[in-house]
Amino acid sequence: AQALLVPQELTTVRVQDPRVQNEGSWNSYVDYKIFLHTNSKAFTAKTSCVRRRYREFVWLRRQLQKNAGLVPVPELPGKSTFFVGSTDEFVEKRRQGLQQFLEKVVQNVVLLSDSRLHLFLQSQLSVPEIEACVQGQGSRTVTDAILHYAMSNCGWAQEEESRP
C-alpha cells in the first residue's frame, strides 16, 4: 500500500513559439521557446522557460552522445537544405522534431545525469558558458546558475503556466 503514495514523476517539455531573430540580415536564425514543467527530483527548477536555436540542440546532442557511452541518444530532426514547401512548414516540422528529441532525452536516466542538459534547459547560458560552468570555470555552480535564472524569470514562467 505504501507504493501508492509515491507520486508519479512527470516532466512535461514543450518546444513552442519559433521566432526569427535578426530578421532580414544574413545572420538571421530561428529560435524556439523550451518550456519545462516537472516534479522530478532530477531538476533544480520545477518550471523553466528558455530560448534555444537549432545549432545549440546539435551541440547538446553531440555532448550527450560523448558522455552517454553506449546509451543511444535520440535523433534530431534533419538539417535539410533541400526543403520543399514553405519555411513555416519547415519550422513547424523542426519544432515537432526538437520537442520529440527533448521528450525522449528527459525520459532517459543516463542523459538526465548530464549537467549540460540541465543548463541547456534551465538557464540562458550560451554554449561556451555552459561548458565553462560544467568544468567548474564559471562564476557559479550548475545549480546556482539554474537557480539564478529561475529567480530572474520565474514570474514569466508562472504566467506561462496559468494560461489555458
From TrEMBL:
It is found in: Cytoplasm; Endomembrane system; Endosome. CDD domains: PX_SNX10. Residues 10-127 form the PX domain. Its main location: cytoplasm. Keywords: Cytoplasm, Endosome, Lipid-binding, Membrane, Protein transport, Transport. InterPro entries: PX_dom (IPR001683), PX_dom_sf (IPR036871), SNX10/11 (IPR043544). Signal peptide: none annotated. SUPFAM superfamilies: PX domain. It is a peripheral membrane protein. One of its GO terms (molecular function) is phosphatidylinositol phosphate binding. One of its GO terms (biological process) is intracellular protein transport. It comes from the Eukaryota. GO terms for cellular component: endosome. Belongs to the sorting nexin family. This is SNX11 protein. The lineage of its organism: Eukaryota, Metazoa, Chordata, Craniata, Vertebrata.
